[in-house]
Amino acid sequence: MAKDKAEASGLSGVSVGALYGVGPARCRAFAKLGVHTVEDLLHHYPRAYEYRGDIRLLSETSPEGKSAVILTVSTAPRAAMIRRGMTLLRFRAYDESCSAGGSCEITYFNQNYLKDTFAVGATYRFYGKVERRGSGYMMVSPAFEEVTPGREDELPALIPVYPATEGLSQKQIASAVSLALRMAASGGEDDMLPAQTRQERALCAQSFALRSIHRPRDMESLALAKRRLVYDEFYLFALGLAATRARVREGVAPVCDRADLSVLEAQLPFSLTGAQRRAIEDIRREMASSVPMSRMVVGDVGCGKTVCAAAAMLFAVQSGRQAALMAPTEILARQHARELSDLFSRMGISCELLIGATTAAKKRDIRARLADGTLSVVIGTQALLSDGVEFAAPALVVTDEQHRFGVNQRATLSQKNRHAHLLVMSATPIPRSLALGLYGDLDISRIDEMPPGRQVVDTFVVDEGYRARLNGFIRKQVAEGGQVYVVCPAIDEQRADADDELDEDVLLGDVSLRGAFDMDLSALQRAAHGDKPPLKTALGMAEQLAHDLGDIAVECLHGKMKAAQKDEIMARFVSGEVKVLVSTTVIEVGVNVPSATLMIVENAERFGLAQLHQLRGRVGRGKRKSYCVLVAGSRPGETARRRLETMRTQHDGFEIARQDLLLRGPGDFLRGGSDGESGAGIRQSGGIQFRLADGCDDADLMETAFADARSLLEQDATLSGYPVLRERMERMFTVDASILN
Ligand code: ADP
Ligand code: MG
Predict the structure, then answer these.
(1) Largest alpha-carbon pair distance within the chain?
(2) How far is the CA of 401 from the centre of ligand 2 (A)?
(3) CA 371 – ligand 2 centroid, Å
(4) Can you tell me the distance from the alpha carbon of 286 to that of 292, in angstroms, rounded to the nearest whole number?
(5) Residues with beta carbon inside 6 Å of ligand 1?
């Protein structure tokens, strides 16, 4: 759905350059923030607000954090050059708490143009750190606004803090936003939402919402604005997914109607569970039709999704067609190839692995056989689709562990495969209430039944004090024939590996948007300090364990290693030669080593619930009793403690997902993956741009928006009566072609 400039109406057709004061340089800076048009600017929401409403006397300020003070200028600003290229502007100001001579010295660096701004006798609200200095005070580069004496109350208490970039100051963004708001007000833009929906859901008007998110009069209007805008994002999102689905269904896929599951069943050492059978039946039915299948099989780790994928691929091949299976990592692709090629060869189906490490000659051979149709199944990573691979008779694309993909990536994938069936395997057990909305572009088969005999992985939460006993436990497991994973949040002191976006709420501004509603001052203070103890690193931990465990074979695996090296280490762990594998979360998803019996997660407080659940799913896959030990670093926060407690007591993926939803809010689920599970790059390129919904913790609001979107579509499937809505939705869903190219 590329944006058609000619169709764009209203402010989405007006460049930010049209605003007074925004020249070519600022246009370029805005472009870096993704702001091209006035409309984009209106939706460039503050990332936080500074609360300047708590006005203190100088004598009441604390040297910790920032304070708001109202001061009158007592000396004219004087500029001094302190060295080449560095000037200093200085003056004094006071309030009623100042004794004679004990005023506040205010300094600005390299801002000589302010010289004429501050007149003696004029009053300003200053906001910044107030430090004591002798009998007086000092502030360096405080933010300021002029105050008309007697009208202090009219100053806004909440000042927006925008995502900014080099070449654009907060003030410059704010002033451009003011102009954009004025333009919007005079332009009389239509409200995107049908009036009836707005009324029924008690949502404020779009114009009020936009004004208030940028210039909140108070907390109440900010809350109203946020509620409306978050609703809009969910609503547009649901509409966009439905549109994607409708478009996919217009395509034509090969009819695969010669499916015979018994061929597969004859090769399996177990019988299929009822849930697996139902999922496979959904797949069989849809592949037998020319309407492209877009189906997701969702099921907890270890429920046996791979065999469903194998069945789908078999159906394609039985009808004389080809299938591709894509995994998110080479490790996983290799593992699937190992498990499936054996199974396929027993059914007489040709199957090859095509990854970066494949030799050039082999790659050529595989491509040739895919192109002439003599190779039936190919397994690889996402790169499969971009490497100029041509299929003679493609019928099916399977992607495994799709939760690493964002919606946009799915949309792109479906678009590229309009002539094939799509099957998505996901281990993220999304609560049922959310799945409908979050995956509105896919039909869902749920595997809600585990193969018989699965054991519960006993889970313990410990702290550093248990280190010696933990090492003893590792020795015992290894002595009994087990193997051990140790997962760390970082590679070394510098690198955080795949999960550099950890799940802690990092407060960026003084008040994060999330916090803007409850003004948690202690959180503000903690954020100001940022004194986190260092994280356990995979390299450091591997060295330590190799030393502590003596003759037990320890190896380290992380995402920044060369693929061949990763494969080699993984292969030695699979073969049982390596007993203890210290790694980052690269092993998180899908890895299947049945003799692994102990999972240790270091700095477990830094991982999200979904991720911990995935990690724990790496053990307990064989016959042996298995354990998971979550090592909490010092002082985990309240949310982190609750996560660890949930892990200790809960083993059902759906229940964990529900708790996760409660702890994190639905917004996090939307970003194209759960916490930390994808590299930052994937998250950024793969997700739809959620600006506010990210921090939303109101699951009801989301469900309402999804339901409303569905009923609107029932009335008007193409949104022909809602051009503004359609345009906004299409802009949100601009297909991101970069991921497959
Ligand atoms: P996941 O859903 O996490 O991808 P897998 O497909 O890797 O799970 O299956 C996990 C393990 O369970 C594999 O070793 C697989 O052979 C086994 N398995 C799958 N289905 C069954 C079943 N119906 N009965 C017994 N074992 C099964
Ligand atoms: Mg799997």
Answers:
(1) 96
(2) 7
(3) 28
(4) 8
(5) 270, 272-273, 276, 299, 301-307, 427, 451, 592
**253-447: CATH number:** 3.40.50.300
CA nearest 370: which of 354, 348, 347, 386? 354
Asked if the model's pLDDT at residue 199 lies above 90, the reply is: yes
Which has the closest alpha carbon to 302: 485, 448, 445? Answer: 448
* CATH match of 53-155 with 4.10.640.10: no
Number of the ligand 1 atom closest to the C-alpha atom of 273:
23
Burial class (CB in 10 A: 0-12, 13-18, 19+), 422: buried
The gap from C-alpha 346 to its chain's centroid, in whole angstroms, comes to 41
**How crowded is the C-beta side of 309, counted as CA atoms within 13 Å?**
33
Q: Concatenated DSSP letters for 268-300?
A: -SSPPPHHHHHHHHHHHHHHTSSSPPEEEEEE-
Specify the pLDDT at position 503.
25
Cβ count within 10 A of residue 346: 12
Q: Please, which pLDDT band fits residue 31 given cuts at 50, 70 and 90?
A: very high
* Ligand approaching nearest to the C-alpha of 307: 1
Token pair, residue 576, equals: 């049982």
The share of the chain scoring above pLDDT 90, in percent, equals 45
Report in angstroms the alpha-carbon separations of 574 from 56, 334, 570, 585, 627. Answer: 64, 12, 6, 17, 18
Please report which helix (H) or strand (E) contains residue 195, including its range.
helix 195-200
Question: Does pLDDT of 624 surpass 60?
Answer: yes
Q: Which of 256, 391, 248, 418 is nearest to 325 (CA)?
A: 391
Instruction: Give dist(CA 319, CA 312) in Å, integer.
Output: 11
Options 1.10.150, 1.10.10, 1.20.1420, 1.10.8; CATH for 1-48+166-190 is 1.10.150
CA distance 392 to 322: 8
Over range 524-528, report the average pLDDT.
Answer: 36
Alpha helix ranges (H) inside 428-549: 432-438, 467-479, 521-529, 538-548
Contact 437, 703 (CB under 8 A): yes
Q: Whose CA is nearest to atom 19 of ligand 1?
A: 304
Q: Give the number of C-alpha atoms closer than 13 A to the C-alpha of residue 187, restricted to the C-beta side.
A: 18
Give nearest CA residue, ligand 1 atom 26.
Answer: 451
Domain 253-447 and domain 458-650 have a common topology:
yes
- The answer to whether the CB of 499 falls within 8 A of the CB of 676 is yes
Q: How far apart are CA 620 and CA 643, in angstroms?
A: 21
State the amino acid at position 171 in one-letter form. Answer: K
pTM: 0.68
- The tokens for 723 are 């051009």
- Domain boundaries along the sequence of the chain: 1-48+166-190, 53-155, 253-447, 458-650
Q: Closest ligand to 340 CA?
A: 1
Which class is domain 458-650?
alpha beta
Nearest-CA residue for atom 22 of ligand 1: 451
The residue ranking higher by pLDDT, 668 or 646, is 646
Ligand 2 centroid from CA 400, angstroms: 7
